[in-house]
Design goal:
The protein is an alpha+beta fold. It folds into 2 domains: about 170 residues, D-Maltodextrin-Binding Protein, domain 2, CATH 3.40.190.10; about 210 residues, D-Maltodextrin-Binding Protein, domain 2, CATH 3.40.190. The protein has 18 helices and 16 strands. The strands form 5 sheets. The protein has a 6-stranded mixed β-sheet with strand order 4-3-5-15-8-16. Helix 3 packs antiparallel against helix 14 and helix 17 packs antiparallel against helix 18. The chain is globular and about 65 Å long. It starts with a strand and ends with a helix. GO terms for molecular function: maltose binding.
């Protein structure tokens, strides 16, 4: 497990590891990079686990032993890790708990190999968009209805519960969520936050100066920020019919309306590259070239990083300028209130091949306990339990916007084949066409055709 430092100073809160790299890329890696290898990896996984992996010993395992917990990236704070280890070992005398930190890079391949092998970890964190790929492959132990209630039941984030379910059973439960908010600096934007999605579009266009200032920053490949416009206008990504087939909805009336607004912003409010990606968004923001920046709430740590990084590979922030005067609001919906935005985050599961299932469940219980989840909430992540949302600090507009946005956040379709959609960069490619001014209806038809071919293939 890598060593990390924590630095907190009011609005300049940020997190770094010993290399100086911030967590700014964790969200992107979780929801995009892990999917790049998913198609090939899941094909291998399905073959290896077609009949389901065998459980360790069939009776819950030994009463004592070593439990290995795989956490990914550095989102889980040291305080939570220490609490997990100390509480588990106090409650299970004679047993030990070891936390092994994994990287989002290459995670799918590593999990595919480890969870199918003879030395599988006991409890694992997975990105929410990859959960169904693992559950459908038989890698996770089923959480019974009684256990589900014990761990939180209806209090658990419903969208993340759905992401971790497979064929009517629970496998991977919510761990934490992250939501997107719209960031701005009053030094650059003195307008009141817009009340509706249409007002947001109009304000961003009013702020725009071609080649000089973006009312909103929208790189062409950024499909995460596109989904709210589809949902708010009544469109959908893809829905499954009673016969099991999938129908994509970008060509629906609401889908076309949403894509039209997206293209309007791309062409008339943004100076971002038409083929650009949604990485390192703090860089153009800190250059004072952006009015509104829609991003995961944890980008505040990157913006609030020092202008001169402590290490050579650190990315500069703007802590004493725009970072010191940073505000945020929840993206407004079509009719007001918070829009339905894409929710990032993680699920947590017990490995099917865990040799000590009972001890693994004890560890999972601690991770979903109110005390542990309150620690998670304390650093600004949305906890797994709806009832603990108030534990997220809301003394700033950023914290309040994150909680408001999370309340209506949605996920991509709960099918293991969605990983193939991401792996084949369907949306990235098609939204780049929108940014280049191509016909909206043709782009919508092509998106639907590709998604349906993959999900129904």
């Amino acid at each position: 497990m890598s060593t990390r430092e924590w630095s907190r100073e009011g609005a300049a809160t940020h997190r770094t590891d010993i290399t100086g790299k911030t967590e700014r890329n964790d969200f992107v890696r979780k929801n995009r990079l892990v999917a790049i290898t998913a198609a090939a990896s899941m094909t291998m996984a399905l073959g290896a686990c077609a009949s389901g992996a065998e459980a360790g010993d069939g009776d819950g395992g030994p009463s004592t032993g070593e439990v290995r917990v795989w956490l990914v990236g550095s989102d889980t704070p040291d305080e939570a890790r220490d609490h997990l280890k100390e509480t588990f070992e106090e409650q299970n005398e004679g047993s030990t708990l070891v936390i092994e930190e994994q990287s989002w890079d290459g995670l799918t391949d590593k999990y595919t190999t480890a969870l199918a092998g003879s030395d599988a970890p006991d409890v694992v964190e997975v990105g929410n968009t990859q959960a169904s790929a693992f559950t459908s492959s038989g890698y996770f132990s089923e959480i019974t209805a009684e256990e589900f209630e014990e761990l939180g039941g209806s209090d658990l984030l419903p969208g993340f519960v759905e992401a971790g379910d497979w064929e009517g059973a629970h496998y991977a439960l919510p761990y934490y969520a992250g939501s997107r908010a719209v960031f701005y600096s009053p030094q650059l934007v003195d307008a009141e936050p817009p009340a509706t999605l249409d007002e947001y579009v109009d304000t961003a266009k009013d702020l725009y100066e071609e080649g000089k200032f973006s009312g909103v920053w929208w790189p062409g490949q950024d499909w995460y920020n596109a989904l709210p416009f589809i949902w708010e206008n009544g469109g959908y990504i893809a829905e499954q019919a009673d016969d099991g087939t999938w129908e994509a909805g970008f060509s629906s009336e609401g889908g076309i309306a949403g894509l039209t607004q997206i293209q309007d912003l791309m062409l008339n409010a943004s100076n971002a590259p038409a083929d650009g990606q949604e990485t390192d968004l703090q860089v153009p923001f800190c250059e004072g070239k952006i009015g509104y920046l829609s991003a995961p709430t944890w980008i505040q740590w990157s913006i609030n990083a020092p202008e001169e990084p402590e290490t050579e590979d650190g990315v500069p922030g703007c802590a004493s300028t725009y970072g010191g005067d940073l505000e945020a609001f929840a993206l407004p919906g079509k009719d007001g209130g918070a829009a339905q935005v894409f929710a990032g985050g993680s699920n947590i599961a017990i490995a099917q091949k865990s040799e000590q299932r009972d001890l693994a469940f004890d560890a999972l219980s601690i991770m979903l306990s109110d005390e542990y989840q309150s620690i998670i909430a304390g650093i600004g992540l949305i906890p797994a339990k709806v009832s603990l949302a108030g534990e997220v600090p809301q003394d700033t507009s950023i914290g309040a916007a994150g909680v408001e946005a999370a309340a209506t956040a949605k996920l991509t379709p709960a099918t293991p084949k969605w990983a193939d959609v991401e792996a084949q960069t369907v949306l990235q490619t098609q939204f780049t066409r929108l940014a280049n001014g191509e016909d909206v209806e043709q782009v919508a038809a092509d998106i639907d055709a590709e998604i349906e071919s993959i999900l129904n293939g």
